Amino acid sequence: xxxxxxxxxxxxxxxxxxxxxxxxxxxxxxxxxxxxxxxxxxxxxxxxxxxxxxxxxxxxxxxxxxxxxxxxxxxxxxxxxxxxxxxxxxxxxxxxxxxxxxxxxxxxxxxxxxxxxxxxxxxxxxxxxxxxxxxxxxxxxxxxxxxxxxxxxxxxxxxxxxxxxxxxxxxxxxxxxxxxxxxxxxxxxxxxxxxxxxxxxxxxxxxxxxxxxxxxxxxxxxxxxxxxxxxxxxxxxxxxxxxxxxxxxxxxxxxxxxxxxxxxxxxxxxxxxxxxxxxxxxxxxxxxxxxxxxxxxxxxxxxxxxxxxxxxxxxxxxxxxxxxxxxxxxxxxxxxxxxxxxxxxxxxxxxxxxxxxxxxxxxxxxxxxxxxxxxxxxxxxxxxxxxxxxxxxxxxxxxxxxxxxxxxxxxxxxxxxxxxxxxxxxxxxxxxxxxxxxxxxxxxxxxxxxxxxxxxxx
Length: 458
Prior knowledge:
Helix content is about 40%, strand content about 25%. It is α/β, with parallel strands linked by helices. It folds into 2 domains: about 5-230 and about 435-455, Aldehyde Dehydrogenase, Chain A, domain 1 (3-Layer(aba) Sandwich); about 235-415, 3-Layer(aba) Sandwich (Aldehyde Dehydrogenase, Chain A, domain 2). The longest helix is centred in the first third of the chain and has 26 residues, at about 80-105.
């Protein structure tokens, strides 16, 4: 019998020990989810809407408890977790209130064809989520799956099994029928058993490169459609400006956001040559004096622990390999084990295209600063990545920023604002960061079959 543990990254205390499901147990759960689907697919938009609005209300009402659960499992700053609970509740309301408009029948009359498009459900969806946004990552997918008449089984990260159970409890407490949403405890190696099951219709994943390629290959092997999000090595491009202090403050804030563990958070800082030395010096001073490591429940803390000991070791190895390749270590990297799984804020300067921190995503509070000869060179450096999610450009000359943003190849480019995502705008695939479409409104339609019914053909 295989077990795993939920561990508090700050106190290093064990929250709980869990037993993984066997393959035989998974077969039973998949059948139950499929049986539930047969009834669920006949429910009205209004019925599903009211159930999801109840979940949103429950999240708002219990935001303190849910935020503390996130903090206890995956290090997130408590006040940040609480905000994200409310944001996720509002995202659920957006899906609930607009699903009928997006998934309703669409009439057509063109080229001698008269008919309508309808959106049909698919069946049981297998979802796989990471640990860095424990409630949001699961619910933004699961809500779309289920609003589109499907049922879902979800593998949450082994770092946050308590959160996974809390999500299933939210569905139960909102009076959803049993088995519409099912939380499962499994190892990654059991994904093939799940995807080989004929009752599984589709899969969606947010995860790292190895998991992404594995699930993609299995989905193809068993002819299951998929929507897969990988990671990003996102660019923060600094062009002409007068206030370097403001640039530095924004840059550091973007880098340590969520402990530096955010797929669409800025990681590579590309600075025009004439500002480069001043920027590096000021960024080093800001990291040393303004970033506060400590208890994630403390409002004064700005940098929480990393999610796991494995994550700390991975970041340390990536920094070491970058230094071996002659990146200049401006701040002295260190792992802090006195209490919690901390990694000190780290600044790598003189980073070039051959280095680890240029090519790989560093999922921790490590900033890579890269020198650009001019604007065209800065744009080239920003685009020189295999992993594209969000980019951002900063400076004083708005026309310069707009022209530069149009030359960037990323899926979403922000001007003088932190990179991220917006619930009202879709994500889509760029290079190795994505396969399929996610978010609004394509996300709802992704988990359906768009069917054409022809009334007349002339």
